[in-house]
Amino acid sequence: MFETLSIFRTAHAMAVHAGERQTILAQNMANADTPDYSARDIKPFSEVVSATSTGPDLRATRASHLAAQSSQFEASMFTREGEHNPNGNSVSLELEMLHAVDAKRQHDRALAIYKSSMGLLRTSLGRG
Question: Is residue 59 part of a domain?
Answer without folding.
Answer: yes
